[in-house]
Design a protein that fits this description.
By secondary structure, the chain is mainly beta. 4% of the residues lie in helices and 42% in strands. The chain has a 25-stranded mixed sheet that branches. A 13-stranded mixed sheet has the order 5-4-3-7-9-12-15-18-21-24-27-30-33, with no helix packed on it. A 3-stranded antiparallel sheet has the order 36-39-38, with no helix packed on it. The chain is elongated, with a radius of gyration of 27 Å.
């Protein structure tokens, strides 16, 4: 009997030793891959290659303690709250250095202040040297890089740094709030650094806010992107806020390429904030400081995604480019936008527009800024609205601020009531009037065309064959353009 009591007591001691009193490290088996538990309160947590065991990982934590021989398929779980820190005493960062790892964060709170020595400043959570991380978010998590509005080096870090050459897949059921320092993306690149590959899925909820002059999700200011990819999928809910950089996309005064895909049933709210960036797409550009390289932007919105994209209050499209201030002195941007399936999209420009207003979807900028755009819309659930600041150059709902640019635009048209041989519903070019035919019906006489859409104009509504204008050059266009055949 005494041996049985002693056995129970020893078991309780072991359990409390693993899970009680916020240990800095522990291990547990949950029925799936083993879980290695770490607490950020003890200082930096570094996940890297275990040089003593081939193909394995090691984690350094608690000021230099090492747990090694970790299988890459195991889960590394990080929780806790970073200690209050003082200047020039850097600690409490998570660094994943050059390895593939499965990391779970649960109720993790990291706040990294600015240090007076720039070299001491690092992102709170960083992927380095080709790291590939599956990040599962559970509970309520907050990653904050304290920031300043000044241009000091101490302010310029992302919150969750995923720079070029690194990749992250964020999923889970929890909440992640990420706020960057100045000139940096909340999730993506720090100042002068582009982002790598970022995928957000599951049912995770994310709020990503730049600390200033960059993206919520994307590249840092003054960066050049090569192959940057941002995918938001599944049932993820993402709110991103930029400032001069796009909320999601390319940073302020930056160049290069980005591919942005929003699909499945993802919900996205993207705001260009107080600057001149797009809601989704590109950041502000000019030709006054040498940062005038072109941007190549591809935006795909698919499936049942629900997207609200608002350009910055200083200028920029809802979906498209940030405001291109440089006029003919700048290298023009290239934009491709595809919106299909049953995706619901509301793209709005709100900015003061410098000399021109900005389109809801398209190229925003000065006369002479140029550029090329291909905009293909097949979803019936799209609304685009240009900014309408008095005294500024006109911009269309879909198109370009520069009147010298004619983007290639296709837009959905619904034709109802047509007879044999009538023009079918579909997506048609909006760059020139569409030739439509009512067809014929035995025993009936054609009685004219009508529409349920605002601003639709027929060249001759009384003719069975006429031209039909798709009003993308109006301030607002919403839903398919309709043409209804009447019969008598």
């Amino acid at each position: 009997m005494n041996q049985r009591i002693l056995s129970v007591v020893l078991t309780l001691v072991l359990v409390l030793g693993v899970f009680g009193a916020s240990p800095l490290s522990a291990s547990a088996t949950t029925g799936g891959p083993p879980v290695h538990l770490f607490n950020i309160s003890g200082g930096d947590i570094i996940v890297e290659t275990d040089l003593g065991h081939a193909g394995r990982l090691q984690v350094t934590y608690g000021g230099g303690v090492v747990e090694d021989n970790i299988d890459p398929g195991d889960t590394i779980q990080i929780t806790g709250t970073s200690d209050v820190q003082v200047a020039d005493d850097p600690s409490c960062h998570v660094i994943v250095d050059g390895v593939t790892a499965n990391i779970t964060i649960e109720d993790l709170h990291i706040e990294v202040p600015n240090y007076t020595t720039p070299a001491d400043n690092q992102p709170p959570f960083a992927l380095k040297s080709g790291a590939d991380v599956t990040l599962t978010v559970t509970g309520n998590n907050n990653i904050l890089k304290s920031h300043s509005t000044s241009d000091n080096n101490a302010a310029k870090n992302a919150a969750l740094d995923v720079s070029t050459g690194n990749s992250i897949n964020i999923k889970g059921t929890g909440v992640l709030t990420a706020t960057s320092g100045n000139m940096s993306a909340a999730i993506g690149g720090s100042n002068a650094i582009a982002a790598g590959s970022i995928t957000i899925g599951g049912t995770v909820q994310i709020l990503a806010t730049t600390g200033g002059r960059s993206c919520g999700i994307g590249s840092g200011m003054n960066s050049t992107s090569t192959g940057m990819s941002i995918i938001i999928e599944d049932n993820a809910q993402v709110t991103a806020i930029g400032s001069e950089g796009a909320a999601i996309g390319i940073g302020n005064l930056s160049s290069g390429t980005v591919s942005i895909t929003i699909k499945d049933s993802a919900q996205v709210n993207a705001s260009g904030g107080s600057g001149d960036g797009a809601g989704i797409g590109g950041g502000y550009t000019n030709n006054t400081n040498g940062a005038n390289d072109s941007q190549t932007i591809v935006v795909n919105i698919q499936g049942n995604a629900n997207v609200t994209a608002i350009g910055g209050t200083g200028g920029g499209a809802g979906i498209g480019t940030g405001y291109n201030w440089a006029g003919s002195g700048n290298k023009p941007h290239t934009l491709t936008v595809n919106i299909d399936g049953t995706a619901t999209v509301e793209a709005t420009a709100t900015g003061t527009g410098y000399n021109n207003n900005s389109p809801g979807i398209g190229l925003a900028g000065e006369n002479g800024s140029g550029g090329t755009a291909t905009i293909d819309i097949t979803s019936p659930n799209v609304t685009a609205t240009a900014s309408t600041v008095a005294g500024k150059g006109y911009a269309p709902a879909i198109g370009a601020s520069d009147p010298g640019v004619t983007p290639a635009i296709t837009y959905p048209v619904v034709i109802t009531g047509g007879g044999s041989g009538a023009t079918a519903s579909g997506s048609y070019s909006a760059t020139a009037p569409l030739n439509i035919n009512a067809g014929t019906r035995n025993g009936y006489t054609f009685d004219g065309w009508t529409t349920t859409s605002a601003h639709v104009v027929f060249d001759n509504a009384a003719s069975a064959t006429t031209f039909f204008s798709i009003p993308v050059d109006e301030v607002t266009i919403s839903g398919p353009s309709t043409a209804v055949v009447g019969w008598d």
